[in-house]
Design a protein that fits this description.
Layout lengths: L1 E6 L5 H9 L2 E7 L6 E6 H8 L2 H5 L2 E5 L2 E12 L6 E8 L6 E10 L5 H4 L3 E5 L3 E6 L8 E4 L8 E3 L10 E3 L7 E7 H31 L1
Parallel strand pairs: 1-4, 2-6, 7-10
Antiparallel strand pairs: 1-3, 2-3, 4-5, 5-6, 7-9, 8-13, 9-12, 11-13
Length: 216
């Protein structure tokens, strides 16, 4: 994905505030072999780009002064209550340096699994993204997870999914974490129904108890 940035001449709180009033968002580009660069971006274009998953999880092509640089989005600061981006950080990407990135998981096939289709269960997504280590050329926009084989009483673990070539999962010491768990819907409904029945019984007993108290 490509976006356009512009050089930012001034820095500081006051300069950034004035920049935002004009519809621009201040930012910085760091890393790689170059020095940190102050940049600014069109706020509306940035706002819409941030709504796209690919802007957060893939290597981006930044055009600055007619030159393209490959970067990653590293940090976004939002206004606490306004729909406004206050600042963005990008990191330059070097072809031979491996990246630590969080990649979203795209699930499919659960509606055709025995657990959901035949056994009254739902697929609970315990994780919606995983952290990976790979070279920039191998970074996937997302990782597909097939849930069509889910069965009642089972879970899908990290080792059960296929990672793209050149991509390694980073688990920070966790041994084969759960990606998706199978939850029995019928049991949950029965528990809820039992709770409602007890509440109704308690409500019905209350007027009776009040009536007896009034006769004394």
């Amino acid at each position: 994905m490509k976006f356009v940035a512009f050089e930012r001449a001034k820095q500081g709180t006051g300069a950034s505030r004035r920049l935002r009033i004009t519809g621009r968002t201040p930012g910085i580009v760091y890393g790689g072999e170059g020095q940190p660069e102050l940049i600014e971006l069109d706020h509306n274009a940035l706002w819409h780009a941030l709504k796209k998953e690919v802007f957060h999880s893939s290597v981006l092509d930044m055009e600055l002064n007619g030159k393209e640089t490959r970067v990653l989005l590293r940090d976004v600061q939002y206004h606490p209550f306004k729909q406004q981006v206050l600042h963005v950080d990008f990191q330059r990407v070097t072809a031979g340096t491996k990246l630590h990135m969080k990649v979203p998981l795209h699930f499919h096939g659960d509606e055709n699994s025995p657990a959901v289709k035949l056994e009254g269960c739902i697929a609970n997504h315990v994780m919606t993204e995983i952290e990976v280590l790979c070279l920039p050329r191998d970074l996937p926009e997302f990782i597909e997870v097939d849930l069509s084989g889910l069965k009642k009483g089972t879970s899908l673990h990290l080792n059960d999914i296929s990672l793209p070539k050149g991509v390694t999962a980073v688990t920070h010491g966790k041994n084969n974490p759960v990606i998706v768990s199978v939850v029995v819907v019928s049991s949950a409904a029965e528990v809820a129904g039992a709770g409602e029945g007890e509440a109704a019984a308690a409500t019905a007993e209350a007027p009776a108890a009040k009536g007896k108290a009034g006769k004394k």
